[in-house]
Amino acid sequence: MTTPRDLMITALDVAPSPPPVAGELSLALAGAELIDLLAAEAIRLEGDRIVPGHRPAIADRLLEQAADSLAREAPYEQVADWLWRRGRGLAAAYLAALETEGQLTRQRRRGLPFRTGRTVLVDSPDRRLAGDRWTSNEPVLAALATAVGIRDQGTGEAASTPDDAVETVLVAVNEALLELEAVRQRRSIEQAAFDNIWRGY
Length: 201
Prior knowledge:
Blueprint: H1 3-14, H2 22-39, E1 43-46, E2 49-52, H3 61-68, H4 79-87, H5 90-100, E3 104-109, E4 112-121, H6 125-135, H7 139-147, H8 164-199
Antiparallel strand pairs: 1-2, 3-4
Helix pairs in contact: 1-2, 1-6, 1-7, 2-4, 2-7, 2-8, 4-8, 7-8
């Protein structure tokens, strides 16, 4: 299991209603990939730049894609730029991977045999492992879940993150999420002003 998979499963399993918006979740998943690549020593950070390290064997297909997409020549990519580039559509990619692997099923609605309801997780070892990590309040998963609103900030006490590089990634994720929200608010204001012009106000 990987941190992004654990985060995706957690989002499907315990997220409040409504669940996290795909854009927010995609940015957090990209951050989770970086954290796993740091743990595998596939990368290191020099300031806020991602420097590729040795290329370990990676069993997870999406994490391997992440490693393959690293900029391998100086100047290396900044963490913030990675989050926006790699995060584009990433939640949908992880959802599709879980469906392909049979980790998800669609609930059938009673009386409507040819229509399916919402997507739900099946009981699986991966789901149980993600659940164990969640209930143990593991600090990285807890921090990412808090960032996207799955976990309240006051819920439990997670241990501090283990090193500065991981903290740098987590800070970048939070800053990207704030930037995304600011962009959405600005677009909403601009759209409202545009609508008012057409209404003759």
